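Action item from last meeting closed. Structure (191 res):
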């Protein structure tokens, strides 16, 4: 696309797009980012628009879709300051970590419910990839991910309860979102 066309489209549609973005986000910085992202998408994919008379509606549609994507990501992966989440983290003393040996972790792994135990063992003990585990267990890849996630949540609860360590917040079994991000901690405990 010629740069003159791009500049003309930006100058013609920037203000209304920014106002729309601001009405959605309610912050100047987020509205600017969203508007810039919209024009970035126009610069990379605008050539696909066949009817140039629909540029304005195309830009507004792209901006709205980007806003929805950002909102979905924010709900799925909320930003939490570490200082605000301290009470949610399990309290692990250095003594507990050093006394938690591999045999004890394997003992806890044996207490994980069956559909999750096999996937966890193959992933952490045998270093198989998700795809390889799916082939071995003859289940879909998504099922493997789900089983590992839920198994990690169960294993973490078992370890915390079995070592007398407590968290200031009880983690319900269905809440595995935050536990997925702790794979590093779990894999260190299993090593």
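Sequence:
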């Amino acid at each position: 696309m010629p740069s003159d066309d791009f500049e003309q489209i930006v100058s013609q549609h920037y203000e209304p797009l920014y106002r729309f973005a601001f009405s959605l986000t309610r912050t100047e910085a987020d509205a600017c980012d969203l508007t810039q992202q919209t024009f970035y998408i126009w610069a990379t994919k605008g050539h696909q628009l066949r009817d140039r008379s629909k540029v304005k509606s195309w830009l507004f549609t792209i901006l709205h879709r980007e806003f929805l994507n950002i909102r979905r990501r924010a709900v799925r992966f909320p930003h939490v300051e570490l200082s605000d989440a301290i009470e949610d983290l399990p309290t692990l003393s250095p003594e507990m970590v050093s006394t938690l040996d591999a045999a004890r972790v394997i003992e806890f792994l044996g207490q994980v419910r069956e559909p999750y135990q096999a996937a966890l063992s193959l992933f952490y003990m045998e270093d198989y990839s998700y795809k390889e585990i799916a082939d071995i267990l003859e289940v879909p890849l998504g099922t493997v991910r789900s089983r590992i996630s839920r198994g990690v949540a169960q294993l973490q609860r078992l370890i915390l309860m079995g070592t007398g360590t407590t968290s200031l917040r009880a983690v319900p079994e269905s809440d595995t979102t935050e536990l997925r991000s702790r794979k590093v901690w779990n894999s260190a405990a299993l090593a």
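Note appended to the action item: The chain has two domains: 3-76, 86-190.
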